[in-house]
C-alpha cells in the first residue's frame, strides 16, 4: 500500500472473524517435502500467465495482509518467514497467533535480497509498494535472476495508467483471485473455496442491511498526511469495504489503489464520515485530533458531526480481515444513516 510498509493489526475487533478465517484447518495442506501436484501449475498473476515448476516449501512474505493470506489457508508450514514492522500489536490477541509463533519473523523492515537468500526462499509473495520496489531493485525480475519465483499481490498490480498506478480489478475480487490462485498452487483448493464462500456470505449479510440510494453516507478514507492526504481510490480495499458496508467512497474516481489527493477535493465532496487507517508512529487519536482541528475541514459534515471511525491497517489492505471490516463499518454507517 505504501512506500514505507506498516502493519498495525486489528486486535479485539478482529476476533469477529469466523473460524474458517482464523486458521481452523478444514483441509490439510500437503506436508512440506510432499508434492501436491505431479505437474507444474500455471496461474494468471497481474494479467500474466506464470508457471511454477513445483509446490513452494519455503515461502517468504512481506507485510501483514499478505502473511495472513497464507495463514488463512493453513499454509504456515510452507513458510520460511515474513517481514513486517513491529507496530502490529499484541499477537496473543489476533486470530493467527499460533501461526505467527510458528513462522520466523525475518525483518522489521521490507524484504531484501539478502534476507530472502538467507531464508533459502523458493517463493516470495509480496506486492508493489508492499515489498516489491523499483528504487531498491527488489523486483520479481531481480529475484528471477537469482532463481527465486515470485507471486504479486493482486491489489498491487500495476494497471498500465502510469508506472505507479495500481489495481486491475475490484478489491474484493483481488482477494478472491489470490485465494483461488494460492489454493491451486498449494493444493488447498477446497479450503480456498470455503473461505471465499464464507467471506461472500459475510459481506452479503451486511449488504442486505445497508442504507440505499441517497441514504448512503459519503465516506473519506484518511490514511495519513497533513499537507496533502493519502487516501484510497477505487482499486484499494477500502473502496469495496466502504461500498459493501453501505457508504460511497468520495474518491471513487481516482483510478488507483492508494494515492495522494488535495484537501480541496475532500472539502468539495463533503464526506459524512471519515475512516481513519490506524497504523505507524502517528496514532489514530492523533490523526483524529488533527482532522477535528484542521481549519479547512471545519465545515465538512464528518468533522462538524464528529463522525470519525477507526479501522486498522490490516483491515484496509487486501487481507482475510476485509469481511470483518465490512461488518464493523456497516454497523457504524447504519447508525449514521438513521440519524441523518
UniProtKB/TrEMBL annotation:
Keywords: Signal. It comes from the Bacteria. Residues 58-340 form the Fe/B12 periplasmic-binding domain. Residues 1-19 form the signal peptide. Pfam families: Peripla_BP_2 (PF01497). CDD domains: TroA_a (cd01148). PANTHER family: IRON(III) DICITRATE-BINDING PROTEIN, VITAMIN B12-BINDING PROTEIN. Belongs to the bacterial solute-binding protein 8 family. This is ABC transporter substrate-binding protein. It comes from Streptomyces andamanensis.
